[in-house]
Each structure stands twice: as C-alpha cells, then as structure tokens.
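User: Predict structure, ligand magnesium ion.
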Amino acid sequence: MNKKKLLIDVDEVLCNSGFLPLVNEFKNTNYKIDDFTDYYLDDYVLSSEKEKQKFYKFYLEKNSYDYATLLPNAYEVLEKLNRIYDIYICSACVMFCMIEQSGKFFMDKYNWLLKTFPFLDPNKFILTNSKNIFKADIQIDDRLSNLGGDISQKLLFTSYHNKNISDKELNILNIIRVNSWKDIEKILL
Ligand SMILES: [Mg+2]
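Assistant: Predicted complex:
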C-alpha cells in the first residue's frame, strides 16, 4: 500500500527559528516570541531602515539554525511518523529583505535538516516559497497562506502570529488547529 504523503514545514513547526534570538543578541534585548502577534517582526524590533540594514548584515554572518530550538516532542513524533508516512519537508528559504543573499538560507536549512533528522530522506526536502502548488494527503504549516494547495487534511500549527484565527474561520477552510506535536501524534498516529 502506498504511504500517505505528508508535507511538513520547518520554522515555527519543527523549531522556533533563530530570528528573534539573533535580534536579541544584536540589540541586547530580551524579547519573547509571544510578545508578538504579527508574523513579520522586523518592523517592531528594528526601529529604522538603517538599523534593519545593520541587522541583516549581522544576520547573514550567523547561521540562524545555531540559534533555533526544536519544539517539544517534534523529533520523537516525526521519527514515528516517518515509519508510517511518506514525509516531505516543505519550507521557504527566500527572505524578501535579502533576496540576493538568500542562497545561504537554503544551505543553512538543508544542513540543519540533514544533521538534526538523520532518518529523513534529503531527496524529499522541498525548499520553496511556493507551497501552494502541491498535492498531498496531509500538510502541517503555521501559516494559512501556505495551506492553499490540493491537500486532503490541513493542520495549522499554533504559533505567536496565528492565535487570533478563529475556529470558525478554520472550520470554513476545513483546517484543523494543532497546538503541539502531541496533538499531531494523536491525530496522525
Ligand atoms: Mg513556518
């Protein structure tokens, strides 16, 4: 029997990205991710265009995955899912504020995935900002705008920027909210 195809996002699903920790290091601040409700933090934490440009330069000198933290139970549940499902990582790498430098983010993400999840097949790492062109059985992502493909079961992973989306709205879109990898385990295993 063919295994079901499962698309899984990386940032804010498998890990908390290194963006905010790097902002904190750069600015000597102590922001927490739940201080924010909008996806793009730049305008809130970086006060001027000059500061943004300085930060982006600093950001490019780092590997943000050195600052990323795995979400609780992500590794364990992903490993179990991998035995039953045909898993594809589906994750964006182009940062619109750093288009010409974004090649580095593909490399950093690829290397982190390879090292962190040795049981995953790197032939199935899909690194793209165009997530809505796929057909699959299940997709897990933290952004509604990424859940627009031909997918039978769509799971929205709760994150700082999507808490205000109501159950009613998700119902209409036929999307189920999951708050943790334990929730995913209950639904998919
Ligand atoms: Mg994400």
